[in-house]
What does this fold into?
Amino acid sequence: MSQKSPSLAKNIVKFIIMTIGLGIIGIVFGLAGALIGGKVLGSDSVGFGALGLAIGGVIIGYPTGIIVGIIAIKKILHRRGSLLLGILGSIFGAIITMAAAEPLNLNSNPNLLFGVFFLSVPLFCLVGFFLKR
It folds into this structure.
């Protein structure tokens, strides 16, 4: 039993580090998406249109960064796992968070909504990735 315990702890630590790494890559892509989305209408007199596009850029850019990160983990670090299920997991994590925002009252607090969004996308991605191991 003592042999399995450090192995389990080691796997949990690897999973947490991979989740944080995917989150960082996703944030970089999300910021790039926000900048691009904000610049689309940034010079117009619309005002809040640029804000909406910036938020849309984050919502699209963050999962895109997670997908790029999981591809990098598969190709560069040679981790065993299902790339297709990881990509589907990241898309599912984004969709389920946005779909559950109203029923779970996540949209009443933007910090809570984006916190759940930023956590669920890499978690669903990694769960999908390691599901077929």
